Amino acid sequence: MKIIIAKTAGFCMGVRRAVEMALDSPGKHRGPIFTHGPLIHNPQVLDLLDEKGVHIIRDIPEAGEGTVLIRAHGVPPAIKKDLKKAGFTVIDATCPRVIKVQAIIKKHARQGYASIIIGDRDHPEVVGLMGFTAGKGYIAGSIEELDALPDFDRAILVAQTTLNTRLFEAVKNWARTRHPHYKCFDTICDSTAQRQAEVQKMAEVVNALIVVGGKNSGNTQRLAEIAGQSGVATFHIETESDLDVEALSAAETIGITAGASTPNWIINRVVRAVERLPYKNSAGIQKIVFSIQQALLLTNVFVAAGAGCLSYACAVLMGIGNFHPHVWISMLYVLSMHTLNNLTGLKADRYNDPEREAFYREHNRFLICLALSSGAAGLLIAYFQGITTFIVLLMMSILGLSYNIILIPKTIIGKYSRIRDISGSKTILIAVAWGVVTSILPAISAGNAFGLKTALVFFWATGLAFARTAFFDILDMQGDRIVGKETIPILLGEKKSIRMLKTILGIWVVLIISSSLTGTVPALGLGLSLCPAAMLALISMHENGFMLPGIRLEFLVESHFFLAGLVTLFYASALQP
What pTM, to 2 d.p., does this model score? Predict the structure, then answer.
């Protein structure tokens, strides 16, 4: 089964802005926090905001307190005025694209123009736009309704920002033919037009098309309409539990798109559920392989083995012969720390990876024992490698265990009472820990001087681990933001973060090759340049929509550490007589 995900699926700019403003409000503005009507048309997001203490008010009381966010669709000016009069602080989360339409209507209403709004009469955006027409507003949802309107000496035509592009093309043709003096403004959002165009193209190459989004979301409904009109089997769902498993199992190619108010975590859940469809009722080798992949990833055994491979590569690069103990130390330390990190990160996994959350809740005791025993075993091996190695690993383990613990009361230091409260600390500390355990500890045990070679190997290993961790942070941005994590991608933004990773990996491809050519590290460095190059290619493929989030992508990301081990094994074998 082939799965194609629309590049335009998920939050548009306006919805993302509104949701982020709502999530940030409890810590920024005086409470209680409300939204006037549903912030966006997605029940899962609204439930989430309610859990976060952001509630919906529909009627404006005579007197109130707290903060009210204006929904992404906008409201009539009178609503804002009444909210302020009642005593609320008003924060405008209206989509900037909608504000632009409001401004067009307001300007022309002052000049005496009638405003004809093409859209759904009861849609909150249209209701809000009508408030700017100065009593000279008209709504039409079809050409027939346009024909029924009186003729105006001066009028403007605007579209609801999520309108069907085909309908507005027909409206523009109608205006040119019937009322050429009317001013026509194409106010359909670029995001809407792109989504609809992509759905039309996708419908030509898939057997079934899944549209993910709220049942009452206008833009999602239009995506489903366009897909249905193309003749392809179309399924409009809100969550993965709505999937028609029997109907979809027979499809060879499935397309997945989503409305502008559908969060990434819902899309990812649907993708993972569809990814499992071919194996649901089968008992063949593919299902066995898939189940093994899933188990290795959920238990962190795969990433731990990858750390062992990286340690092996680092040892050979530094000319260290006794690498076996450090391969085990790296594996056991990473298994312990990553398992503990997942155990304390279940809130984010509820959105980022619900399967992992369910697995960790079900096997909580076993995983705690696994994390503690593997950490203890790693320390035991480190002890026999020398007291310095043991102390460094012990300090790293204590640091990892204390990451989520309140070290200084908030009453004394404020926000930064835990290490995790330091913005971006998770990504950097994980990468540095990988670098130390895979390269510095072997160098300490071997008594190597901390020269240029050791530094290069350390930064190479740290760079690979940083790229891995930061890339997963990019995939988990929405879930991390919901639970208040400030990872590097959240601080920089997705595009800047991807650009940063591609730059780092590109630099390391050049550095490791040049270091080999100059003799700073062995010729093995030429082969190991494949590791950052492979990661760079994987990130680029994901960026361009060729690699879907899910088990396959996660497995491939972790596999580039195995590539380091495999290349090193071939190199070592070639050197043997």
Answer: 0.76
Q: Which amino acid is at 354?
A: P
Query: Which residues, in sequence order, are CB contacts of 1 under 8 Å at separation 6+?
Result: 251, 252, 253, 254, 274, 277, 278
For the chain, domains (ranges, CATH) are 12-95 (3.40.50.11270), 98-188 (3.40.1010.20), 191-285 (3.40.1010.20), 292-575 (no CATH)
The pLDDT tens digits along the chain (577 residues) read 788 888 888 888 888 889 888 888 887 888 899 999 888 888 888 888 888 889 999 888 888 889 999 999 999 999 999 999 999 999 999 999 999 999 999 999 999 999 999 999 989 999 999 999 999 999 999 999 999 999 999 999 999 998 888 899 999 999 999 999 999 999 998 888 888 889 999 999 999 999 999 888 888 988 999 999 888 999 999 988 898 888 888 888 999 999 888 888 888 888 888 888 877 666 667 778 878 888 888 899 999 999 999 999 999 999 888 889 999 999 999 999 999 888 876 666 667 677 788 888 889 899 999 999 999 999 999 999 999 999 999 999 988 777 666 666 655 555 555 666 677 778 888 999 999 999 999 999 887 767 888 999 999 999 999 999 999 888 888 777 776 677 888 888 888 999 999 999 999 999 999 999 998 889 999 999 999 999 999 999 888 877 767 778 888 999 999 999 999 999 988 876 5
What is the spatial distance between Cα 466 and Cα 435, in angstroms, rounded to a whole number? 9
CA–CA separation, 241 and 273 (whole Å) = 9
Please identify which of the residues 62, 125, 204, 357 carries the catalytic annotation: 125
Question: What's the 3-state SS for 319-384?
Answer: CCCCCHHHHHHHHHHHHHHHHHHHHCCHHHHHHHCHHHHHHHHHCHHHHHHHHHHHHHHHHHHHHC
Examine the residue annotation and report whether 145 is marked as an active-site residue of this protein. Answer: no
Query: Judging by beta carbons within 10 Å of its beta carbon (0-12, 13-18, 19+), is residue 270 exposed, middle or buried?
Result: buried
- Angle at which helices 264-280 and 551-575 cross, to 10°: 70
Closest CA to 40 of 214, 221, 194: 214
Per this entry, what is the length of the chain?
577
Region for residue 56 given its phi and psi (left: phi exceeds 0; alpha: psi -120 to 50; beta: otherwise): beta
